[in-house]
Amino acid sequence: MAKQQYAPKKEGKIVPIRMDATFYNNRALKYLDKLNFQKALRYFRKAIELEPNNPDYYCSMAGVLAELEKYDESNRILWHVLEEIDCKINECYFYLASNYANLLEFELAEQYVAKYLELAPDSLYTEEAEDLLDYIDFQLQSIPRERETGENQEVTLLHDRARRLLEEGRFSEASKILIKIHTEHPDFIAARNNLALCFYYMGRFEKAMDTILSVLEEEPHNIHALCNLAVFYSHLRDKEKLLDLLTLLKKIVPYHFDQSYKLATTLGILGEDEAAYFLFSKMIAQTGLGDVHLLHYGAVAAYNTGRFDEAESLWKKIERLDPDESIAAYYLTQVEQKRNGQSALPGASYHYQTPISDDILRIEAARELSEKCKKDPLIRASFLWALRFGDQDTKLQVIHAAEYLQDDEIEEALRQFLLNPVEDDHLKEAVILVLQKMGAAEPYRAVMEDREHLVQVNPHVHSLPVWHDKWQQVIDCLEHHMQDQYDLLEQQEARALWFDYLAQAYPNIPVIRKQETWAASLEYAVAQLHNRSVTKEEVASRYGVSAVSLTKNYRLLCEVCRSFTE
């Protein structure tokens, strides 16, 4: 066999390609010219990763998302530009107006396009903006008129911002804006409606009910308020009032799209799937097939009423529109299992996500969970909802998962949970531990055992100029022996007593020869405080020390920490 001949390799220069943000932006623009929106979107995202403060890349990506009919996601990006990068990019208001028009929210679209024309009366999109305004006028069946400017316009746009925060689960932030609007503009009914929802999601049920009833006193037939009231009655388990109100709601024929949307989602959430299906079907026929959330609601209503072919058809459309999400695939599997007589969900959820027990709460990696919450505000909203309205097991899972969510909204929700007298004390003990691990500032106010406590886990540790290993060994020994005998509050009180003693006795702290003796003394002090029927001999025996040594240290604790032991 002839030998294989190899040509000698020549040395050549390797010219590196600099794949910077400009490179990816140019690639995205090329795919945009070819109307390949998915690839354009991918490269715009790469450009933004390399230059996260370039507003042009964000605006281009928002445009691609609008072409893909993902108007809500497009709006979130535009607001990010205005709020975080450059508030003077006026074109964002025109893009927002266009998106809201596509979402059939014409009154809001009118405000944004008017603001754009006010800020940039002679600019790149002026002619298109004027055409859009004419189209909006036609849709609103109104003649050109003097539009809101100045303070009224700013209030409308501020309310839209609060509404976005509410939809993202950032209830505390939203409530502050809505309270400000309500205080300064008490006739702004929409703000009051959303404020009632904020109070409800934050667990302030009486405040929510008072707010919504005040709206209905002024406007007895306000559909949004009636829908909110129905949800509140459901939470309060007032079946009689809820039934009467649902009977009324099912007779309403809404005139505006936003009213139909609110009514349909409310009826669906409250289990009136047949009535919800009727409304969702009309809205889908009216708006086309580009809104994945609306399609999902329609699919859920179809699934829950046994219309599996229609549900399958709608979820398949969602799968094409939103291929990065697994939601449609999950529910399509449920449809197939239903048809085959296999175990499947008895009812689908109107929330646009896979059920929390199957997805969110099973995530074990802290980093992955944190990243998912940053990318999808609905996950955070689901956490907050489950913390308030889930069963005991779900609440406990959510509390443990919250440790990995370094988020002010989550921390505030946990603090409010501690103050809710109807919540289980054992769950509150878990919350206190999670807050401590999160680094949340102490003390924590908590209603436990039917009275309010001020819980401070480490009250004096930071005031001590040194910290010795022997002191920590006392804590470790104490926790080891108390964890199965005492609740979390009593364990924390024992730790607090130890910190208090060290802080007050320092620097004249006795040499600690045996940590078990001090730990036993601390446990006995807490047992006495809570009137536990336990003797010194019993406690000393569990720690392997003498009752005489325990008594000696117990007296030292009582002498130094009189406020604790009195």
Structural features:
566 residues; mainly alpha; disordered N terminus; 2 strands
Task: Explain what the structure shows.
- There is one protein chain.
- The protein has helices at residues 21-33, 37-50, 55-67, 71-85, 91-102, 106-119, 126-139, 150-167, 171-184, 189-201, 205-218, 223-236, 239-249, 257-269, 273-287, 292-304, 308-321, 327-339, 366-375, 377-389, 392-402, 408-419, 425-438, 469-482, 488-505, 515-529, 536-543, 547-560, 562-565; strands at residues 444-448, 451-455.
- α1 (21-33) packs antiparallel against α2 (37-50).
- The chain is built from 29 helices and two strands.
- β1 (444-448) and β2 form a beta hairpin.
- The chain has 566 residues and is an all-alpha fold.
What kind of sheet is the major sheet?
A: 2 strands, antiparallel
What overall form do the CA principal axes indicate?
A: elongated
Overall pLDDT, averaged?
A: 80
Number of helices: 29
Strand residues, percent: under 5%
From the alpha-carbon coordinates, what is the Rg to the nearest angstrom? Answer: 31 Å
Give the N-to-C terminal Cα separation: 103 Å
Number of strands: 2
Which regions are unreliable across 5 or more consecutive residues at pLDDT < 50?
A: 1-12, 357-367
Helix content: 55-70%
Strand arrangement across the biggest beta sheet: 1-2
Structural classification: mainly alpha
